[in-house]
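Anyone have tokens for Gas vesicle protein? Sequence:
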Amino acid sequence: MAPQHDANGSLDHVIETLLDKGLVVNADIMVSLAGVELLGIRIRAALASFETAARYGLEFPAGTNTETVAWRRAVEQKETCPRCGKSSPRKQLLEDLCPWCGWRSALAERAAGEITGQEEPS
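Reply: yep, here.
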């Protein structure tokens, strides 16, 4: 089988996918002699964006500056729009509209009085 190449196979696409999904490498290395363990090394490395790391609860190294814009965006709760599939702040998506495609939730429509034929019970 020959490898397949597509238009999205650029280095930018690979890096974006890695940062979006994250990559974790776990390795256990043991050196034994006659059944006796002489040396044991455990390695855990993670490569992810701030947002992905915060979403999966990865710990950040000591001294990480948590006052940056990237950090605030990472810890902000986000949801995926059911129409366009893009991520937006949860509060904005549920109470207002999707900034990407304009989709409105039923809660936002009810709050704006746009649902016709239904009245709120008193």
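The mean pLDDT is 77.
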